[in-house]
Give the backbone structure.
Amino acid sequence: MLNLAAATIFLGLEPTDMRKSFDTLAARVREHLHGDPLSGSWFVFRNRAGDRLKILYWDGDGFALWQKRLAKGAFEFPKVIGPAIGVAITATDLALILGGVALNAKRRMRYTRPTPPAG
């Protein structure tokens, strides 16, 4: 079961190839973020364009991977000053990021449902 409030959440700030899955993302946590993928923490990765992200976490008996792609726009990660490769955030910040909300915006941008192709 997902328990967002109890988890420590880390954002990987460098773009990640979204074709990567469990083992490669766990290795990226160890090598680039210097974290333990078995800790129960959530590790969030995004692609170069910023419109897709993956969340990797250990749920006690195996890795779980969650993925989202925005229909329009890009996920906005917090601005970090200095040479950081990852940053810890709160569950509230993650909820805003997943909702496509700009972290420094006063209002949420409204997205429309994509229209299916004609034919």
Q: What stands out?
A: The mean pLDDT is 85.
